[in-house]
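re: ur msg from earlier - yeah i can do the MU-OXO-diiron complex, just paste it... oh wait u already did. ok heres what im feeding in:
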Amino acid sequence: MLSVKMAAALNDQVIAELYSSYFYLSMNSYFESVSLDGFAYWMRMQAQEEMLHGMKIYDYIHERGGKVNLTAIEQPPAKWDSALEVFKDVLAHEQKVTALINDLINLAIDERDHAANAFLQWFVTEQVEEEANVGAVVDKLKMIASDTAGLFAIDQEMAKRLPPTVE
Ligand code: FEO
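and the outut:
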């Protein structure tokens, strides 16, 4: 059984992951609106992946005898001026999520909840991967600056992303 504090913290993380999904869906719409189809597809996959992250924690709360309380999801931003601006926001967002995961693990350690700690380690690895992938996109977008041919080349690369899994 989860402690009341841990159950509440995991519940907050479900909402944070669902917000992430909403955040990336808004970015999908931005890229759709400027016809950058590869970036749009990448964001759609990212939104789906965040939903899976949320559901992984949602299921875990039930597995440990808890109940999820679905609260309101904040409105995400909707306007950006460039792909670089979008991806800088993605990186900042993922860094915040990493901090949230670290806080959850600190709580698990404080409570000697080894099961929650073990469960959360999957997210630690995932965050390293997410920050690395997004950081690489930011670097490439900085390199091409305002070169349209470069932007289209990256757009095509973004379209190669595989659908998400959380195994
Ligand atoms: Fe679920 Fe992008 O962290």
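cool cool. The mean pLDDT is 97. ping me if u need the other ligands too
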